[in-house]
Amino acid sequence: MDENMELQNHLLVAMPSLRDPNFAGTVVYITGHDEKGSRGFVINRQTELMLSDVLEQSKVIAKGSPRLPDRVFIGGPVDPQRGFLLHEKAGEYAASREISPTLCVTLSADVLSRMCRGEGPRRRLFLLGLAGWLPGQLEAEIALGSWITVPGTEEILFDVPPEERYDYALRQIGISREQLEASEEQAGHA
Fold first, then answer.
1. Hey, where are the domains in the chain?
2. Which fold has domain 10-187?
3. DSSP E strands: which ranges in 89-181?
4. Is the pLDDT assigned to residue 110 strictly greater than 60?
5. Residue 182: which H helix or E strand, with range?
């Protein structure tokens, strides 16, 4: 791990030249960056799948339980059958890990059960799978120009529509998608 590069609670914005189908056009929220590597979630690939359907299929909740309005996101190519809840810090749950003073990732069903009862975090994303990098791998990809880093905010996670998150993240650092594409063309990457 590059000691000078702190990526937890930051966004990775894929450069237009990044062609890997798992990451082309994505915004990734980094939830962990340490000597073991880096972990995070793609936050702009929402599916048509409803969280209630996933929970019923996996028998976390019974059929006919109150419906949750949440849509499921594709969080990344690692462990695509595993569910993760990225949420505001609201209550104590088993298997929660703090990402920032106000954000957590929870892997346990207790938070989902509470959500079905109208309790638990209101600001949340349910994601299947995650993105992961070995130690030094993400730093190398950033150095090669595959990603731009942007500070993460709760606003982009919970208030900005998923289809607008890429452009919104770029605006946070004062550039547009068009400017980014033009700069890559000038540099000969595209």
1. 10-187
2. VC0467-like (3.40.1740)
3. 96-100, 103-106, 124-133, 147-151
4. yes
5. helix 177-187
Give the CA-trace dihedral at 32, 37, 161, 108, to 10 degrees: -60
Contacts of 34 (CB under 8 A, 6+ apart): 1
Residue 53 half-sphere exposure toward CB, CA atoms < 13 A: 8
Cβ neighbours, 10 Å, residue 186: 9
What one-character-per-residue DSSP string does 25-92 give? T-EEEEEEEETTEEEEEE-S-EEEEEHHHHHHHTTSS-TTSPPP-PEEEE--SEEEEEEEEEEE--S-
Q: Which amino acid is at 56?
A: E
* Cα distances (Å, whole numbers) of residue 123 to 47, 86, 87, 154, 175: 18, 9, 6, 9, 28
Would you state the pLDDT for residue 189? 53
Interatomic CA distance for residues 43 and 29, integer angstroms: 7
pLDDT, tens digit (0-9, with 9 covering 90-100), for 136-189? 999 999 999 999 999 999 999 999 999 999 999 999 999 999 998 888 887 765
pTM, full prediction: 0.92
